[in-house]
Amino acid sequence: MTAMHLPVTPITNNEKFPWIVQKFGGTSIGKYLENIANDIVKPYLEVRRVALVCSARSGETKAKGTTNRLLEASKEALKKDSKNYVRIVDEICQEHVKSSQSIIMNKEILKELEKQLIQDCLKLKNFLEAAQIIGEITPRSQDSIIGVGEKLSCRIITAVLQDKGIDAEFFNLDDVIDQRLDENNLNQKFYDYLAKRIADVVSKCGNRVPVITGYFGQVPGSLLNNIGRGYTDLCSALLAVGLGAKELQVWKEVDGIFTADPRKVSNARLLPIITPEEASELTYYGSEVIHPFTMEQVIRANIPIRIKNVINPSGKGTIIFSDINEVIKVTSKKGLLSGSRCISTLLHENGYHVDMSRRHPTAVTIKNNIIVINIHSNRKTMSHGFLAQIFIALDTYGIIVDLISTSEVHISMALGVEGDLERALKELEKLGTVDVLKNMAILSLVGKQMKSMVGIAGKMFSTLAAANVNIEMISQGASEINISCVIDEYNADKALNIIHEHLISNLPVL
Ligand SMILES: Nc1ncnc2c1ncn2[C@@H]1O[C@H](COP(=O)(O)OP(=O)(O)O)[C@@H](O)[C@H]1O
Ligand SMILES: N[C@@H](CC(=O)OP(=O)(O)O)C(=O)O
Question: May I ask the CATH class of domain 363-505?
Answer without folding.
Answer: alpha beta
